[in-house]
Structure formats: structure tokens, C-alpha cells
Amino acid sequence: MDTDQGKNIVLPGDKPLAADFHRQSFFKVLLRDANFEQVRIPSGFLPQVQVAEEPFGVRTLTGPSGHKWNVKLSIEGNNIYIKDGWQRFYRENSLEEYDFLVFRQCGNFNFDVQIFDKRGVEKTNR
Description:
Layout: E1 8-10, H1 19-22, E2 25-29, E3 39-41, E4 50-52, E5 59-62, E6 68-71, E7 73-76, E8 79-82, H2 86-92, E9 100-105, E10 111-116, E11 122-123
Parallel strand pairs: 5-10
Antiparallel strand pairs: 1-4, 2-9, 3-8, 5-6, 7-8, 9-10, 10-11
Keywords: DNA-binding, Nucleus, Transcription, Transcription regulation
Protein name: B3 domain-containing protein
Main location: nucleus
């Protein structure tokens, strides 16, 4: 049994990370409802994180409209997910199958999110 499952992640003291990390981005293509519950952050995107018993602090997703959604990150096995708050972001941005999302790190695991529809056109009116 994996002892890390369900625990939250903690960045080392929430210290500012290297400038290169702050500019990193990753993308997700939404397939069916597979990404409705949570979104996995690619393992290659992440610096070393530490597992802790204490809840991970609230992080922010900023959508195309500039509106902000609070989310929490959690670790399950070797994967880190955007979970609590993600469903609300999904619904309120009317995300659909084949939407293409770009998550741009803007510091301490807060993200600006660009949303493109299946035609490749950016969704900006949210």
C-alpha cells in the first residue's frame, strides 16, 4: 500500500523558486470527462516536493477573464494533482472535450490558464 496516497504536498517553505521555474508552462487536452475531477501536473514539470501531513496551502488558477479560482494540490503515489476547486474552474469556464489548456506558472504553484477550443481559438469571454 502506498503511504503517500491522499496526502498533500508542500513546497520547501514556499520560498521563491528559481526564475526558470517561474516561467515554466504545461498543457492539457481535455478528453471526455476524464479531467473533470482533477488534473495531473506532469512529473517533468515539478521540482522536488516534500510530502507532509499538514494541508497544502491554497493555490490560484487565473482564467482568461482574470477571475481567480482557489484550488488545492494533492499527491497520490508519484503523481500531483490539481483537485479541490478544479471542478468549479471547469464548470465556470464551460470547458468541453478537446479544449486545450495552457497552465503558465506565475509563482509558488499559482497558474495563469489559457483556454483554447477544439478549433484552436482562444476562449477569452469568461
